Amino acid sequence: MEENQPQSGPITLVISEVVDPSKLAAYEAWTKGINHDARQFEGFLGVEVIRPRDHDHPEYVVIVKFDTYDHLRRWLISPTYRDWMDQSYGLIAARSQQYLPNGLELWFTLPQARSRGGAPLPPPPYYKQVVLGVLAVYPLILLANVVLGPLLGGLPSLLGLFISVIFVSALLTYPVMPWLSKGLGFWLYPKTRRP
């Protein structure tokens, strides 16, 4: 069945963790330990920790990459991972996770839903990603021509194109693609259940 097939291609797990301000040193040590052990698992591609700027609300963002969803899942269900999660109790005030398959899916608003088997949703089929991309990009290019065309007429063509690309990319990333992917969620993710 389609939903039981392993995810092919790289996948990113983005974890947001709000840390108890009095336990920052312990959390930093914990992060080094869990990331060291993740590196030992098959398919591990890398990890990046984005540290907070606001020490009154220390929210860390941890970005973990594996080469396939199956390899990521093996890490997440391993006794090693569970042991590290047990050690995190008391350090972390709040945690959220989001799976982001690489590619256009990074622009999507992923539904807070799972497949019937309980696994995180796989990305939509490639053709649906292409259709969504066309539905988002084509109107934005038309809008860029109408809005920016008169302003960019005197500039060299490559510079004008560069400014148009910035305009389209900014609107595509937010609000267009999240809004469109949420509005078409019934079509992109037809086999979902709410948690």
From TrEMBL:
Membrane-crossing segments per the record: 130-152, 158-177
Cited SUPFAM superfamilies: Dimeric alpha+beta barrel
Species name: Shackletoniella antarctica
Protein name from the UniProt record: Antibiotic biosynthesis monooxygenase
Annotated ABM domain residues: 11-100
PANTHER family according to UniProt: SLR1162 PROTEIN
GO MF terms, alphabetically ordered: monooxygenase activity
UniProt keywords, alphabetically: Membrane, Monooxygenase, Oxidoreductase, Transmembrane, Transmembrane helix
InterPro entries: ABM_dom (IPR007138), ABM_predict (IPR038762), Dimeric_a/b-barrel (IPR011008)
